[in-house]
Amino acid sequence: MKHIDVKELFTNGEKYKNTVVTVCGWVRTWRDSKSVSFIELNDGTSLKNVQLVIEKGALDENQVRAALVVGAALQVEGKFIPSERNGYEISVLKITVLGGCPQDYPLQKKHHTLEFLRTIPHLRPRAKYFEAVFAVRSRLAYAIHKYFQEHGYKYVHTPIITGSDCEGAGEMFRVTTQPWNAKAKTESEYFGGDFFGAKAGLTVSGQLEGEVAAMGLGKIYTFGPTFRAEHSNTTRHAAEFWQIEPEVCFCDLHDIIEIAEDFIKFIIKDVMESCPEELAYFDERIEKGLIEKLKHVISSDFGKITYTQAVEVLKNSKKEFKYPVEWGCDLQTEHERYLTEEYFKKPVFVTDYPADIKAFYMKQNPDNKTVAATDLLVPGIGEIIGCSEREADIEKLKAAMTKRGMPLEAYAEYLDTRKYGSVPHSGFGLGFERIIMYITGVQNIRDTLLYPRTVGSL
After folding, report:
1. Contact present, 411 and 391 (Cβ < 8 Å)
2. What pLDDT band is residue 167 in, cutting at 50, 70 and 90?
3. Which strand (E) or helix (H) includes residue 365?
4. Is the pTM of the predicted complex or chain greater than 0.90?
5. Of 108, 84, 92, 98, which is closest to residue 29 (Cα–Cα)?
6. DSSP for 279-320?
7. What's the distance, Cα to Cα, between the start and end of the chain in Å?
8. Residue 434's closest CA among 446, 418, 419, 445?
């Protein structure tokens, strides 16, 4: 059906001023007076509602009564006129109810708690908060593709179903067609009768396959869903989330750090330019000073500190941390936030982590204790990017895998990339939902996903 988006009406108001327009949308609120009825209509294209003005007696009373229902879907024809209070409004000439809505519609009030909205994920996109979140999510995805495409990267689609555990942590969801009561005497017999004839799972990362692609294409990026069967019921963890993972050949750790910083600044700047209305909403309602924070990130040179130096800073901070800091421990969120929010007061790269707390594929440093890895830590979130130069020496890579008890035969193809023309190469992984949280100020990862998947919740 022919209609004009609300965003288009407000963006190009002069074009439509005093003309008859047709709009569609859902009733957000309505109010009545003796001589006129008002409806706030929203179609999802803008955070701003368009006000409909219905003069009493101008339309069929039954039609009007059916339209004055929160949640109802309407098609409206009317004159788009200037309004001192709203900028513009529509003087209604014709109204059609496309979809009625009963009184038990859950979004009757203007404001609901996020906890309540999480119980109705199928309806919460109609709430202003989530309309803003998903607008930013959409634009941010575009900005990510834009950055890599403009810088000569090829977009590759890595498998969602895989036989390898990239992180080596064993936190994979198993993929099977076997019945729940399948009979088997051994593990190999059980998986031999499965669809692939082998144990399969949902990917935790597209990195390994991304490295394979980069070894012929030079520089690539992946952007897709990843899965972790990790029992972390926190505000920062979900079982299904999206990751951005570039891989760049002929690139060392210092090079990939420069790329990561440039990338983060680019995508934040793009969202700030493209979603000013949404960011203003988040600045006002969710995180005061959000826009200034993002401007500071774009204009600042990110900090850089080695893991060893960071441990000393934390130990000398005289802060009472819940988790004590010693060399060799994994930095906790409280440590990361101290470094970014109190010590550096900006994003910071922590480099050269102990090898024992990092993944097998990271390049071993000459000290035989640390690896050429870095995490980008940002205020308010902590780690947002995990980054490393990859181990290019096949014997060192094999040794790291053997030390972790990983079956080399399962990674034969990956090892071949080090056997046939290996090159220095680096990459990073960025959690898409984590960067959404940072840019919007949203505090819970569940509120960045249409249908969040967490422990015990499907």
Report:
1. no
2. low
3. none
4. yes
5. 108
6. HHHHHHHT-TTHHHHHHHHHHSPPEEEEHHHHHHHHHTS---
7. 35
8. 445
